[in-house]
Every structure is written in C-alpha cells, then in structure tokens.
Amino acid sequence: MHCVAPSSSISLKSITAPAAVINRPSHAKIQCVASRFDAAAAASNQQLSTAAPNTSNFALGGIKSRSDWQSSCAILASKVESQQQNADKSTGGADKITVVNGHTSLDLVAINNLPKPLTIADLSPAPLHGSTLRVAYQGVPGAYSEAAAGKAYPNCEAIPCDQFEVAFQAVELWIADRAVLPVENSLGGSIHRNYDLLLRHRLHIVGEVQLPVHHCLLALPGVRKEFLNRVISHPQALSQCEATLTKLGLNVTREAVDDTAGAAEFVAANNLRDTAAIASARAAELYGMNILADGIQDDSSNVTRFVMLAREPIIPRVDIPFKTSIVFAHEQGTSVLFKVLSAFAFRNISLTKIESRPHRNRPIRLVGDENVGTAKHFEYLFYVDFEASMADVRAQNALAEVQEFTSFLRVLGSYPMDMTPWSPSSQ
Ligand SMILES: O=C(O)C(=O)C[C@]1(C(=O)O)C=C[C@@H](O)C=C1
What we know:
- One of its GO terms (molecular function) is arogenate dehydratase activity.
- Its main location: plastid.
- The chain is an alpha/beta fold.
- It folds into four domains: 130 residues, Periplasmic binding protein-like II (D-Maltodextrin-Binding Protein, domain 2); 69 residues, no CATH class; 81 residues, Periplasmic binding protein-like II (D-Maltodextrin-Binding Protein, domain 2, 3-Layer(aba) Sandwich), CATH 3.40.190; 104 residues, 2-Layer Sandwich (Alpha-Beta Plaits), CATH 3.30.70.
- The protein contains 13 helices and 18 strands.
- Strands 1, 2, 3, 4, 5, 6 and 12 form a seven-stranded mixed β-sheet that branches.
- Helix 10 runs parallel beside helix 11 and helix 12 packs antiparallel against helix 13.
- Bound molecules: prephenic acid.
- Prephenic acid (PRE) binds next to helix 5, strand 4, helix 8 and helix 10.
C-alpha cells in the first residue's frame, strides 16, 4: 500500500470541484462547497492523482487508460491543427475534401494513426486501467483506518482525509476510487456518524473488512507514566481502553481528538511531555514515539468492522457468502418492525446487525391532544445487515415484503462477507 504524507490529507475546505462533477443530487453540506478547485485542492489533487502519463504512451497504439486516451486526443487534435496550418500554407487549403452535405472535413489521417474507439472498459468507473486504486480513509497515516484500507485493497494508494464526510466526498468527486470507513467496534459499538453519512450520500457498500485493533500508549522518548497528566485519542479508542487506563493507575484527563495517529502526531509535533496518545505501534514508529504500554484495549479480541464504499454497486453473487445492508423507515407503530424482522426470519435469513437512528429530517413530533400523556416521540431509521445476497431469491422476496410495510427502503449494498479468521492480534 502506498501512503500519502500527512500534510496532504484532504479537508472539507480543500475539496472543491466543478459542480458538474457531482454525480448525485446536491444536499445541504455539498452545496456549501465552492464550485472551483482552490489552490489547496489543486495541490493535493496533484499529489493524489496518478502520475502524468508518459508522453511515449501518446503514440496511439500505446493507449492504456482513459487518461492516456484523453491526452492522446488532445495531442492528436493539436497535431491535426498544425498539420493543417502547414498544408494550408503550401497548398492554400485546396486539398480539403468536401462531403456531400457541404461540410468540409479534416485532412485525412494515415490509417495506422486512427484513434481506437472507446470500449466499455474505458468507461468502467474505477480503478482506471493500469493505475493504482485510490482509497480514502479518515485520519492520518498510522490510523487503524489506513490499516483497514490496506487490508481491503492491498496495493492501494491510501488517501488521508480529515473527516468522514470528506472521505465520502473524495469518492463522489473522483479524487478517490473507494472509501474505507469504520462502522462498528466490538467494544465501543456503532460509529453513528457513518450510518448517518451513508444515508446522506449516494455511495454503495461494496465490501467489508474486520480489523483487529491493538492499542498502545505512546509518549515521547524519555517520558515516563508518572509524568503524564493527559491522554488523547479518538473517542472510540479512549472508550476501548477505558478500564485499562484506570488499571494502569494513571492520574490523567482524557481528551478526544479526530483520530488515533493524529493524536500521536500532535504530541510529537508539539513536544508534549505531559501527554500520551493511544494509537497503533505503526503510529509510534511514524511519529518517533515510545510505547509505554502495549495492548491496552479492554478486550484482547477488540475488532473494528469497516465498510468499503464506491460510486457503483457490485454485482451480487450467490457462490460466496454475501451480506446485504439496508435502511428503512416506517410510519408510526412498533408492529411494523416486528413484521419487517419476520420477513427475514420466515426465510431463514440471519440478521447480523440492527441499528436505529433518529430520523434527522423529522426528529421530534408533538403528539396531539387525543394522546395525552406522551409528550413527544422520535421517528427512527433502521439499519439492518442480513446474511444473503441480493442475487438470492429469498432476499429479493424478503425485501419485496419489507417494502410493503415501510415508507422508505434503500439497499445500501450487497457485498462479500469478510470471512478471514482473526485472532487477538499484535498489530
Ligand atoms: O483513529 C483511528 O485510528 C481510526 O481509524 C478511527 C477508529 C474509529 O473510528 O473507530 C477506527 C478503529 C478503532 O476502533 C479506533 C478508531
């Protein structure tokens, strides 16, 4: 996996692109994004984009990718123009061919120089042929999300983003081909922010990876536990180590920051000798920190589940274990939830996850006089993962039934299950 240096991490401010590139209906957050590439975006984009095509590839036979194709067209066009100017000079333009409808054609191009027609492969969304898959993740190098990106796509170019939302946008704006984002942890539970973002954005879940998460307590070289009065990390990491921090007898305040590796980077950059970070051993190595305590997660089998997101869904299969993620909302009444769940139960489809989130658009509704006693109630969205592929007729029938009971239903993705066995890791 190739890593992009922390300084090039993408931020919301720097993600700006022509509005026309946004391939989905606009929503509030995206609308505030400026409709041009600003200097920062141009700089990071330059760093993130694949290397400029070698000019030798511009020979028409050497076209390997869409970008080569576009460059070839540009070069061909300028060649035609200059040849035409030369020809015009020598012949006064008399050798032009007039076609039947009266329009004048270009000069004839030698037959072996004709551009090849675009094929379906040239239009395939991602990865571009011959180029590395670009995978957006939240955090800086050394974050667990970077490790998850490497597990999901071993030879990818991992692109750090400063917020989850930026990782979504990076894919939507074609700066990245995929995003890899955490959705739940065995100790800390669901990462709700990403559930909300899955709904707000139009990306598809195309895979999942489970990553054993092994936390270390990091401090600057020479710093001992007794010197510490603060521990900083990602809120999930702090909660995953809560009991162990207490057991270590540290008299510290705990502060949340954007990501684990970012915490290590912050301590190192500011030479903080009273502050430790909870992060990975890789972060210790990257930012020149010492490991004061190793494996400080409260449970040795601490694991985080990440999903891979893409602009296009994958074609579901039935020959390997698949999972499908859906989100639905229903009008009032608890019996609907029971009916939905039974649609799966009757077909022997196992659910692996159910999560409810308050419905953001209509969060609270006052109940009328006839229902005296209940002041307010919330409306909910339900996220369900089940063990079946959308190519499986049982899943199709179950969803057809669910659709009847619900006012809103969306399939977030149907994707291969991560079946890799894992054990308490030393990562
Ligand atoms: O901060 C990181 O290193 C992350 O990759 C984020 C994150 C998370 O959001 O849950 C990922 C895995 C761990 O559970 C802790 C933190």
